[in-house]
Backbone:
């Protein structure tokens, strides 16, 4: 057994305390989250798992600042999210969170470059800088020769790479991926997971939301949800690099 | 793009209506100008609707003889507002030449000074002069329609026309004046010296006096002065009301303006309706566009687009669509005006730069107004629900 590399833990990015979320559906109230507390630090690689109805999607929406909790405290990089207005949430999503969707969600009539530029446009970056940064990130994910292709000219794996580049372009605090390999074949899926691994090793904080064990196993920490609460929260010590593992 | 058709049609309709209205205004002004805006007309009847017509019917007729005393009083008034009074008498008659004849021609007898108060120019020849006027020579000038009908292949000058069996030598042809508001032709006239007219025709004619005003900006003062003079000529006691009317172009305009404006308003309303239909089409298509792009809107919001960013995005899209539709419509309208103008030269049409700008503005406004509701609903979409949309 080779001991895992011990690193000093990074600062807390996400600090959630006892959040709940209720939805009113007709005459019934659905308690999607019933008191979830959790801390996520910088440069963690975690997977959130759970069956349908466990509150996994709701928690993901909370983490992504797409929605606010009904009660409880949620601090993102020290800022109190629960009390933010729409514009402030939009700003956080723009700068701190990089979304990756199962269905890629690229603009079909725009080129890769244009798609990756989108968060920069919303951040108000000038056109010249925008294009440079977008191209740079596309090169980093291995699509330097596809920057002027439209999504329908790309394979599924390539589209997801564009989406990942888009998620990275604003240097966000976390990358939030919802079933990122759900629409890909297993081989391509593995390529994407390899990309996420390299992002993690490069210092990014990666949060996967999935129901597949094979995918969740790539992460270093797995949180399982059931019926709106955290059922388990396991971290694994695993080598951070092959070099370390072999020594 | 098919939905922009609604806006295109709307813009074409509004633009064409605008040109027609512009043309009507121009034609209106041209017709009005026939009555000089610096001439006062002393007549029995006023140029407006009257309810108590019996009071006017019994008025004594205006006599051409009044011109002389009026002119004397004008000459005797220091700082007068008036220039000269011109008598005129007229009736309708048939005019013949050789085998040709025209009916319903206005025969007018007047003096040589008439040229001062009228606005016509000569195509050929000249008006009768002082001598001919005083002596009542058997000469006349004819209007364009008369010359055209009686002398289709040659000049009327020095030839004699017959009116009621009397011969009159043509010494001038008046340049074409057109119609008065399209109602009657101003070119179906013959003008001759007053003494000649009275010798042969006076029994059946109506007379009036035309008075030229010095300064048209002081028309009211001139009118007052003339009223005073006429009252003296008619020998009216101070407590008696005027038994004559003094008419002016402005009064005529005021009567006709409301009619003209009503036509314009009605026209614009109808075409506005077609534009409204077009706008509804744009609103509909934008709503559909928003619905189809629900997931895209959700994604944009997830990437950090604020509500007003989404609002602006869709508003710009609908406005751009309207602008393109408007440009296409404007081009169509221009071509149609060109075609109509070529086929029907007398139809009033006027295409101007102002019209182009207004049409573009209307297009933009249509885009903004019709696109607003769908754009607003797009901006309000909940990102979570939107992202789940299939």
Residues:
């Amino acid at each position: 057994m080779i001991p895992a590399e011990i690193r000093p833990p990074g600062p807390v990015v996400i600090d959630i305390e006892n959040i709940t979320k209720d939805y009113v559906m007709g005459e019934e109230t659905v308690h999607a989250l019933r008191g979830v507390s959790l801390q996520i630090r910088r440069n963690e690689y975690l997977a959130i798992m759970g069956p349908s109805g466990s509150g996994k999607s709701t928690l993901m929406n909370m983490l992504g600042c797409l929605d606010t909790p009904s009660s409880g405290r949620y601090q993102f990089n020290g800022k109190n999210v629960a009390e933010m207005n729409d514009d402030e949430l939009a700003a956080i999503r723009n700068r701190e969170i990089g979304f990756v969707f199962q269905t890629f969600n690229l603009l079909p009539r725009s080129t890769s470059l244009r798609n990756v530029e989108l968060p920069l446009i919303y951040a108000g970056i000038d056109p010249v800088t925008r294009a440079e940064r977008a191209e740079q990130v596309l090169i980093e994910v291995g699509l330097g020769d596809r920057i002027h292709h439209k999504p329908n000219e790309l394979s599924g794996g390539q589209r997801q790479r564009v989406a990942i580049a888009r998620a990275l372009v604003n240097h966000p605090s976390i990358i939030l991926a919802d079933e990122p390999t759900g629409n890909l074949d297993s081989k391509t899926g593995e390529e994407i997971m390899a990309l996420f691994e390299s992002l993690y090793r490069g210092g990014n904080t990666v949060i996967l939301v999935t129901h597949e064990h094979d995918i969740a196993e790539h992460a270093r920490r797995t949180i399982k949800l059931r019926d709106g609460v955290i059922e388990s929260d396991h971290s694994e010590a695993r080598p951070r690099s092959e070099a370390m593992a072999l020594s | 793009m098919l939905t922009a058709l609604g806006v295109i049609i709307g813009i074409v309709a509004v633009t064409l209506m605008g040109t027609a209205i512009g043309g009507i205004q121009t034609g209106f002004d041209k017709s009005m100008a026939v009555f000089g805006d610096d001439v006062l007309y002393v007549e029995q009847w006023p140029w407006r609707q009257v309810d108590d017509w019996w009071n006017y019917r019994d008025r004594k007729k205006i006599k051409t003889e009044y011109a002389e005393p009026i002119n004397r009083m004008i000459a005797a008034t220091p700082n007068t507002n008036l220039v000269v009074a011109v008598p005129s008498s007229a009736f309708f008659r048939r005019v013949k030449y050789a085998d040709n004849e025209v009916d319903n021609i206005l025969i007018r007898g007047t003096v040589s000074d008439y040229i001062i108060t009228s606005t016509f120019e000569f195509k050929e020849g000249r008006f009768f002069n002082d001598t001919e006027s005083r002596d009542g020579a058997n000469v006349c000038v004819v209007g364009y329609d008369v010359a055209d009908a009686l002398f289709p292949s040659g000049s009327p000058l020095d030839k004699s026309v017959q009116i009621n069996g009397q011969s009159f030598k043509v010494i001038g042809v008046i340049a074409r004046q057109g119609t008065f508001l399209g109602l009657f032709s101003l070119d179906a006239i013959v003008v001759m010296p007053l003494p000649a007219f009275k010798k042969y025709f006076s029994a059946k004619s109506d007379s009036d006096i035309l008075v030229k005003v010095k300064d048209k900006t002081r028309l009211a003062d001139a009118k007052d002065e003339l009223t005073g003079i006429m009252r003296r000529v008619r020998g009216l006691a101070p407590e008696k009301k005027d038994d004559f009317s003094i008419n002016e172009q402005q009064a005529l305009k005021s009567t006709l303006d409301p009619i003209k404006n009503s036509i314009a308003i009605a026209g614009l309303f109808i075409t506005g309706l077609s534009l409204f239909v077009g706008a509804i089409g744009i609103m509909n298509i934008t709503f559909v566009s928003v619905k189809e792009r629900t997931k895209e809107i959700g994604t944009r919001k997830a990437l950090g687009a604020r509500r007003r960013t989404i609002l602006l995005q869709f508003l710009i899209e609908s406005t751009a669509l309207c602008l393109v539709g408007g440009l296409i419509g404007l081009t169509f309208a221009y071509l149609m005006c060109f075609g109509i103008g070529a086929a029907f030269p007398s139809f009033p049409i006027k295409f101007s730069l102002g019209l182009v700008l207004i049409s573009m503005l209307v297009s933009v406004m249509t885009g903004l107004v019709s696109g607003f509701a769908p754009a607003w609903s797009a901006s309000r979409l909940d990102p979570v629900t939107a992202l789940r949309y299939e």
In short: The interface with chain A takes residues 295-296, 298-307, 309, 383-384, 387 of chain B (CB under 8 Å).
